[in-house]
Amino acid sequence: MLRSLPALRTIAALLLAGALALVWALSAGELPIGLSDILSALAGSDDGMSATVVRELRLPRAVAVFACGGLLAIAGALMQVLLRNPLADPYVLGISGGAAVGALAAMLFGLAPWLVDLAAFAGALGAMLLVFGLAHGDGSWTQTRLLLTGVIVAAGCGAAVTLMLSLATDMRLQSMLFWLMGDASGASRPWPALVLMVVGLVAVLPFARDLNVLARGELSARALGVRVERLRYLLYLVASLLTATAVTLVGSVGFVGLIVPHLVRFAIGNDQRVLLPASMLAGGTLLTVADTAARIVIAPMQLPVGVLTALIGVPVFLFLLSRHPR
Predict the structure, then answer these.
(1) pLDDT, tens digit, for every residue of 222-279?
(2) What residues does each domain of the chain span?
(3) Which residues, in sequence order, are CB contacts of 242 under 8 Å at separation 6+?
(4) How many contiguous H segments (helices) and E segments (strands) does the chain have?
(5) What is the per-residue DSSP string for 259-314?
(6) What's the predicted TM-score (pTM) here?
(7) Domain 4-323 -> CATH class
(8) Range from 59-73, 142-156, 162-176, 307-321 that averages highest in pLDDT
(9) CA-CA distances (angstroms) from residue 207 to 184, 227, 271, 275, 290?
(10) Angle at Cα 239 formed by Cα 233 and Cα 244, nearest 5°?
């Protein structure tokens, strides 16, 4: 019971931080909106301009970036256990590159926005299946083989992206670059991603004890009865689907999946039973704060949210690393 109290306090604090970040996202902008107006808009009791801005513009975007941050943070935590590599992040296996190839190809041909999203998701799934098939090979799937295969596939996708950028017209080049750097302005259907974030967390939490054992080494996990192969397949599948959804929704946003699990690990330890939900909330909060700042820091212009995540996350990570050298 005593061990669970710090975990509950951590989750409660992150829930409060996430709620405050969402309130800030709904209130901040060229049209400042007070808390009472936000509550009226969410309750449906107000049909004025402020309510329209909240419900149709700011709420979908805020939910989208929160879901994207949570998806990337969970995927990053799972990838770091799967590969047993502290530098692993959701994009290390080429899934983001596959999504970028699909999305940019759709933009290059001038397809509708919903087709761009569909192409991004199809590209991410294609890259996932390619990496899984090549890395699995004759069944001798190792962390090194999986990582190297992902790096090679990501490099190939990067070459394809560069080619498409060089062929794009000036009119389409800006939107393509914004997508690559993370752009939440067009996220109008965020609710499926939010549901998937919760479902993904619920799917992996029953295996949290096995993840704790696997993090100590494969031999230890096998000796203690963990079905390592099945667990690897589950981690890879869940992390890939979460990453594909996040990239499809907001584009390629760096640093969240790498830095957030480390920040949470520094704060509360490496128990996956607490680390995974805490990472989800912390990732959603960080990306919501970063996106809100990206909207208002040089308004009416908007910065790519990936720039803000780097500016926020890297100094904080380096500070914590200097405080915890081990």
Answers:
(1) 877 788 788 888 888 888 889 888 888 888 887 888 889 988 888 888 889 899 999 9
(2) 4-323
(3) 71, 72, 74, 75, 90, 196, 197, 200
(4) 15, 0
(5) HHHHHHHHHH-S-HHHHHHHHHHHHHHHHHHHHHHHHHTTTTS---HHHHHHHHHH
(6) 0.87
(7) mainly alpha
(8) 59-73
(9) 32, 11, 12, 13, 31
(10) 125
